[in-house]
UniProtKB/TrEMBL annotation:
The gene is argS. Belongs to the class-I aminoacyl-tRNA synthetase family. SUPFAM superfamilies: Nucleotidylyl transferase (SSF52374). This is Arginine--tRNA ligase. InterPro entries: Arg-tRNA-ligase, ArgRS_core, Rossmann-like_a/b/a_fold. Its EC number is 6.1.1.19. It comes from the Bacteria. The keyword Ligase applies. Keywords: Aminoacyl-tRNA synthetase, ATP-binding, Ligase, Nucleotide-binding, Protein biosynthesis. It comes from Nocardia beijingensis.
């Protein structure tokens, strides 16, 4: 039995593709490319119009134009939008690690895609400097002799160990404590593990140092933070906030705790002693961000936070909030845990393979749909970046049997790039952009080995590939 070959279609956006505009195709017309180079456009009546496109026509047009022209329309495509993006926002009790890194990759790339399309974008980082986790760390810091921490250790990683120690000591988990001390022998010289932890004292200097370390690590992933919000800067009247939520939401008291009741469950607002919980401070922070000023407020956060994000939209209905859900990250079936000090940090990645190792994991994560879980123990982290770098530094090795189809597919892949970005922005994902970078790189390597590729087309490819990689936080020049 002969298998019928399935011809895949590539959707394009005539308003963003300069070649299609050159052909006079209206901006809003649905257009699809066949692999053989034939264009299919649909008219207002729904009928399909077949437009043959020769490789020579594509090639001649691209040779006569500069690569930057590909981005001319895209640069203003989103100019009417004002977008706030909050991503990562890890608690200042542990370093940035692979588990939270996924949110950084997705959030920062989304921000760059919006910004490249002309949107007014602002990235935010919300520091939880009032929560229970920080209070636990403060107890360990009060007991610690910080001068005894080895100077060769990264400060944020040492603080992460102290935070895990405090959790284990308060829960009397002796086996875990023994494991932690065995992994970090210096801990015994810094804290007296046989004495109870004292009450904690404020440690604003440590909080600021932890935030600075996280922001620095995010910079290695291409993430830029415009504004840092702090819980301590909020001015919240608990009574006023709870009354306001009671007026518009279903609020109940359960064992003295005031909760917001949703179909998916209960979200605590206020303890019995009158103090507010994190969700209430998140509500206050959302109000402080002036919701009416934004077209969209994107919260890039774990999928397990869906209930809290639904509650936030219920509590602040006038805010254009969107939950960009991120699937969990595990390692060999075990989730990363700051309490257990079971983490793979950015420092670990740098020690393992330098910046290249960081970028390998960045691209490998971006290639997966954002809601799907990832187990890094089973993640191919080397081949994707190697494919991109091979294309970036390939030389022309044309064969004696030129393949015009490979060249045509390369030209089409380059020209549909803005349409790919537009779909990712619309879908609030980066998966398509990462996949396009991979396919474009593969097409170029294949084409250069099968057909003479004009220098002008090589310039188009390198210009496009570099920009795609930059959106993902990958600096190709640093990886030569």
């Amino acid at each position: 039995m002969t298998r019928r070959r399935v011809r895949t279609l590539t959707r394009d956006h005539p308003g963003l593709n300069p070649y299609l505009r050159h052909r006079g195709i209206p901006a809003e017309t649905p257009v699809y490319w066949y692999p053989d180079g034939q264009l299919i456009r649909y008219t207002g009546s729904g009928s399909a119009q077949h437009i043959p496109v020769r490789t020579s026509s594509l090639l001649a047009w691209m040779v006569q134009h500069e690569p930057e022209q590909l981005w001319h329309q895209w640069r203003t495509h989103l100019r009417e939008q004002r977008v706030l993006v909050e991503h990562t926002s890890i608690n200042p009790v542990h370093p940035l690690h692979v588990g939270s890194m996924r949110g950084t990759v997705i959030g920062s790339t989304l921000a760059e895609l919006f910004r490249s399309g002309g949107a007014d974008v602002q990235t935010r980082y919300f520091v939880n400097d009032l929560g229970r986790q920080l209070h636990i760390l403060q107890r360990a810091l009060t007991a610690a002799r910080r001068d005894s921490i080895p100077t060769e250790l990264r400060f944020d990683e040492a603080i992460g160990v102290l935070y895990a120690y405090a959790n284990m000591a308060l829960a009397a988990r002796t086996a875990d404590l023994a494991r932690l001390i065995s992994a970090h022998p210096w801990l015994s010289a810094v804290v007296d593990i046989h004495r109870p932890l004292p009450d904690g004292k404020p440690a604003s200097d440590v909080v600021e140092a932890m935030v600075a370390a996280a922001v620095s690590d995010m910079g290695l992933l291409g993430a830029k933070i415009d504004i840092i919000d702090r819980e301590t800067d909020l001015s919240v009247d608990p009574a006023t906030l709870v009354i306001a939520l009671t007026d518009r939401c279903d609020v109940v008291r359960i064992n003295g705790t005031t909760c917001l009741r949703l179909p998916g469950g209960l979200v605590p607002l206020q303890r019995g002693d009158g103090s507010l919980l994190y969700f209430s401070r998140d509500v206050a922070n959302t109000h402080r961000r002036r919701p009416h000023a934004w077209s969209a407020m994107l919260h890039v956060i774990g999928a397990e936070q869906t209930l809290l994000q639904s509650a936030l939209r219920k509590a602040v209905p006038d805010a254009p909030l969107e939950h960009i859900a991120v699937g969990k990250v595990s390692c060999a079936g075990r989730r990363y845990s700051a309490r257990q000090n079971r983490l793979t940090t950015i420092g670990d990645l740098l020690r393992d393979g330098g910046l290249r190792r960081v970028h390998e994991l960045t691209l490998a994560m971006a290639l997966h749909r954002r809601t799907l879980p990832i187990d890094v123990a089973h993640l191919d982290t080397t081949r994707p970046l190697r494919t991109v770098l091979t294309a970036a530094h390939t030389v022309h090795l044309a064969s004696n049997t030129p393949d015009q189809q490979l060249l045509r597919q390369l030209l089409i892949k380059i020209l549909v790039t803005p349409a790919v970005l537009a779909r990712d922005v619309e879908r609030r994902t980066i998966h398509g952009t990462a996949q396009h970078l991979m396919r474009l790189s593969h097409r170029y390597t294949a084409a250069t080995r099968a057909v003479p590729v004009p220098d002008e087309i090589s310039a188009w490819f390198h210009h496009t590939q570099t920009r795609l990689a930059t959106f993902l936080g990958i600096t190709l020049d640093a990886l030569v």
